[in-house]
UniProtKB/TrEMBL annotation:
Alphabetized UniProt keyword annotations: Membrane, Transmembrane, Transmembrane helix
Highest taxon of the lineage: Bacteria
Stated name of the protein: FecR family protein
Transmembrane segments: 103-124
Protein FecR C-terminal domain segment(s): 282-348
Gene3D superfamilies: 2.60.120.1440, 3.55.50.30
Classification via Pfam families: FecR (PF04773), FecR_C (PF16344)
Domain FecR protein residues, every copy: 141-233
Taxonomic lineage: Bacteria, Pseudomonadati, Bacteroidota, Cytophagia, Cytophagales
Length: 352
């Protein structure tokens, strides 16, 4: 998807665009987050998108893809049927014939419009997909906060600090798709007819109904999916040719996708390390200095300013479990013995 090319598109251009039709038909799920991001950034295009959506669904109502040339022919036929009447001067000996021709053209236009309206409404009624379903909803948890959400299907989500999630106002009949950046715990309402699919960059997690945690902060070197109950399918893109690795997880199992190595590994996980954040536990396991600072910034909603003279050994690692502890307490543990001094001023932490 080349997002910039859509900035000047009208509804006719969208109808004829392969990527747009693939998005509507659900045949290119890897681009869903790109379309959602573009729609959020270009709200003025929604009327044109809505017109194009109705036309595409009118052409696709039989459930089969329509080739590009057929769509263009259908569009030209529809466009010509509602065009202005012929402005050429009629010959004197054919007034009745031209008048009848205009009547037939108007009737044809009315039939096409009424037919398209009927087919669109028939499609929407059958699939229960109102216009608002295609407008993404986005929720964010700012640094220093956590948010609890209930999705349209009853699924419960807890967003960790510095995370965001987007999804349609109403899920489709056969699939429930969401996009996640950051970390969240999902308690998914079971629906065997509509899988629940979470996209997090190169990793796609698919379930029918279960509870699990996904950690996928963009700056992290790994994406982790930890299952609490039920079964989960995890797909990850690996290699330069968009190859996929796939694993199935059960209770107490975790999949870790190493971004740089392109490896998908299954292991047993420490519940406090992966899910303790929901209960106010801040967990560090051999965390380097940079990763520790980032985690503290998200958790406490602060910004660190590190003086040039503060240097940590490259092999320095920080481990610990902190239950509802203030930032001063953790900084005291980190700085021991006299590694640095610190001062907290509102939301700024100075390390010297």
């Amino acid at each position: 998807m080349e997002a910039h090319k859509y900035d000047r598109f009208g509804y006719k251009d969208f109808v004829l665009d392969d990527d747009f039709r693939a998005w509507l038909n659900g045949t290119a799920p890897e681009n869903d987050h790109l379309w959602e991001k573009w729609l959020l950034a270009n709200p003025s295009h929604r009327p044109e998108i809505e017109k194009a959506r109705k036309i595409v669904y009118a052409l696709h109502f039989q459930g089969r893809p329509v080739p590009s040339y057929d769509i263009e022919q259908q569009w030209k036929r529809l466009e010509s049927s509602i065009a202005a009447p012929d402005v050429r001067s009629p010959s004197v000996d054919q007034p009745r014939r031209i008048a009848l021709r205009r009547v037939f053209r108007l009737l044809a236009a009315a039939c096409v419009l009424v037919g398209a309206f009927f087919l669109v409404n028939r499609y929407l009624a059958y699939h229960h997909a109102p216009a608002s379903a295609f407008v993404p909803v986005e929720h964010k948890a700012a640094n220093g906060q956590q948010r609890k959400l209930v999705l349209p299907d009853g699924t419960r989500v807890t967003l960790n600090a510095g995370s965001s999630i987007s999804y349609p106002e109403e899920f489709e009949e056969k699939i429930r798709k969401v996009s996640l950046s950051g970390e969240a715990f999902f308690d998914v309402t079971r629906n065997e007819k509509a899988p629940f699919v979470i996209t997090t960059g190169e990793v796609v997690t698919k379930v029918l109904g279960t509870s699990f945690n996904i950690r996928a902060y963009p700056e992290n070197k790994a994406v982790q999916v930890a299952v609490v109950e039920g079964k989960v399918k995890v797909n990850a893109k690996i290699g330069s040719e968009d190859q996929n690795a796939c694993v199935f997880l059960s209770k107490s199992e975790m999949a870790t996708f190493q971004k740089e190595a392109g490896e998908l590994i299954v292991s047993i996980y420490d519940e406090k390390e992966q899910i303790g954040w929901k209960d106010g536990m801040l967990y560090f396991q051999k965390s380097d200095f940079h990763s520790t600072i980032l985690k503290l910034e998200r958790w406490y909603g602060v910004k660190f300013e590190v003086a040039p003279g503060v240097r940590m050994d490259t092999d320095w690692r920080f481990s610990g479990k902190f239950q509802d502890k203030p930032l001063d307490y953790i900084l005291g543990v980190m700085s021991y013995p006299n590694r640095f001094s610190y001062k907290v001023n509102n939301s700024i932490v100075n390390l010297q």
